[in-house]
Amino acid sequence: MPERKPPGMPSGHWVDEQIRRATERGEFDNLPGAGKPLANHDPHDEDWWVRQKVAEEDIPSDVFLPPSLLLRKEVAALPDTVRDLADEAAVRAAVREVNQRIAEHIRLPKGPPIPVGPADVEAVVAQWRAARAAESGDGGLGARATSPGEGSTSGLAERGRSHPGQANEAQQVAQPQPQPRRRRWFRRR
């Protein structure tokens, strides 16, 4: 036990002297957390110890998310997940497996009610094809050969030149349809 502060000596000087003596004796050597900043604990945060334990144990933060948010994150990361798969059947199987888990979650939800929709298989396959085409450098021609007019309005217009009856179809597809006017929830007086 350290001696008492001598009368007449200022407290600050006495404390500094005690710290200096302890440092000379080596009492502050090899302490845990030496050289690290002190944790800034919020006095109103009741879960500070949980955050500290998670940081110490290197636990990923996804473990604490509700299942619906985990599924949403998985759907968002699906293009990156399927990028390394070898063929289209494997991509479709991976998307189908995620969609089965989403359907299971919709039937028996766990956690907060956060809406999760199924992944669009065709969109994921199209992204996979585009990524494969970009890797191979063929500009998408090797991934899928499209026939003229498939998936574009310019092809309809080209076909419309040869058949006059289809020209109107191409113009209708190219022009956006006007939206019906929204009804107000209140009445004007």
Structure description:
The chain is mostly helical and 189 residues long. The protein has a domain at 65-133. It has eight helices and no strands. It has helices spanning 11-25, 48-57, 67-76, 78-82, 88-107, 121-136, 153-162, 167-174. Helix 3 packs antiparallel against helix 5 and helix 7 packs antiparallel against helix 8 (167-174). The longest helix has 20 residues, at 88-107. The relative contact order is 0.06.
User: Strand count, sense and closure of the main sheet?
Assistant: none
Count of discrete alpha- or pi-helical segments spanning 4 or more residues: 8
Terminal residue distance: 86 Å
Note the run of SSEs as H and E. HHHHHHHH
Strand content: under 5%
Mean pLDDT: 76
Radius of gyration (Å): 33 Å
Share of helix, binned:
40-55%
Q: Quick one: overall form? A: elongated
Number of strands: 0
Uncertain runs: 140-167
Structural class: mainly alpha
Pfam families: DJC28_CD
Biased composition (Basic and acidic residues): 14-28
Domain DnaJ homologue subfamily C member 28 conserved: 14-83
Biased composition (Low complexity): 166-176
